[in-house]
Automatic annotation (TrEMBL):
<feature type="transmembrane region" description="Helical">
    <location>
        <begin position="20"/>
        <end position="42"/>
    </location>
</feature>
<keyword id="KW-0029">Amino-acid transport</keyword>
<protein>
    <submittedName>
        <fullName>Amino acid ABC transporter permease</fullName>
    </submittedName>
</protein>
<comment type="similarity">
    <text>Belongs to the binding-protein-dependent transport system permease family. HisMQ subfamily.</text>
</comment>
<dbReference type="InterPro" id="IPR035906">
    <property type="entry name" value="MetI-like_sf"/>
</dbReference>
<keyword id="KW-0813">Transport</keyword>
<dbReference type="InterPro" id="IPR010065">
    <property type="entry name" value="AA_ABC_transptr_permease_3TM"/>
</dbReference>
<feature type="domain" description="ABC transmembrane type-1">
    <location>
        <begin position="19"/>
        <end position="207"/>
    </location>
</feature>
<feature type="transmembrane region" description="Helical">
    <location>
        <begin position="188"/>
        <end position="207"/>
    </location>
</feature>
<keyword id="KW-0472">Membrane</keyword>
<keyword id="KW-0812">Transmembrane</keyword>
<keyword id="KW-1003">Cell membrane</keyword>
<keyword id="KW-1133">Transmembrane helix</keyword>
<dbReference type="Pfam" id="PF00528">
    <property type="entry name" value="BPD_transp_1"/>
</dbReference>
<dbReference type="InterPro" id="IPR043429">
    <property type="entry name" value="ArtM/GltK/GlnP/TcyL/YhdX-like"/>
</dbReference>
<dbReference type="InterPro" id="IPR000515">
    <property type="entry name" value="MetI-like"/>
</dbReference>
């Protein structure tokens, strides 16, 4: 079977436009998910009903397949609340739920990684709780979170390919539509895979480097 590079060149602008859509949705989902993840993380670190609620929300979304989350948001939410959601809107909500639930666990693990002895020593020295968080907990937690956060970014990019299942015109969707018209599946999906590889492989290497450094600290 001959690989037709002319097809890849011909439809590369369309694939790049879809890839830009993918990156924008991932960035927006992560940006919205971060403050939600912080609230969930702080709630899970506390005791009481709020902690149990945050644990329930986090565990629910982390336990569900990403495809089910997207389908539920796109098909079920409009039925329940009597509203209309565009594929992009539903995809953004789905990615936000995925990001918030997973990032809350990353944040919680990073905070838990800070030695308790250092926090207790800061309390003993009479430091205000605000300074303990800003000068003791957060700097060390950020170092512990960096590697897992970059790894999560690669996972989010992979999950974004599922948005094509609800009609979001991202890269995979566009390749599916075009290849369905000209039957050039080999060329177009190879190009899509190459685009993902170009972005995800360096990020994976960066994540491994951060994790190696954090293990030495």
């Amino acid at each position: 079977m001959k690989f037709d590079f002319a097809i890849v060149i011909q439809f590369m602008p369309e694939i790049l436009a879809g890839f830009l859509q993918t990156l924008l949705l991932c960035f927006a989902g992560c940006l919205i998910g971060i403050p939600i993840a912080v609230l969930l993380c702080l709630g899970r670190l506390d005791d009481g009903p709020y902690s149990r609620l945050c644990n329930l929300i986090t565990d629910t979304f982390r336990s569900m397949p990403e495809m089910i989350i997207l389908f539920w948001v796109y098909y079920c939410v409009p039925l329940i609340f009597d509203l209309r959601l565009s594929p992009v809107g539903a995809g953004l909500i789905g990615l936000t739920c995925y990001a918030a639930s997973n990032l809350s666990e990353i944040f919680r693990s990073g905070i838990r990684a800070v030695p308790k002895g250092q926090v207790e020593a800061a309390f003993t020295l009479g430091l205000p709780e605000r300074d303990i968080w800003l000068k003791v907990v957060v700097p060390q937690a950020l170092r512990a979170m960096t590697g897992p956060f970059v790894t999560f970014g690669t996972s989010l990019l992979k999950v974004s390919g599922l948005l094509s299942s609800i009609g979001v015109a991202e890269m995979t969707y566009r390749a599916t539509v075009i290849s369905g018209q000209n039957y050039k599946y080999l060329e177009l999906f190879t190009a899509v895979g190459a685009m993902y590889f170009i972005v995800i492989f360096p990020l994976s290497m960066l994540a491994q480097r951060f994790e190696l450094k954090s293990s030495k600290w």
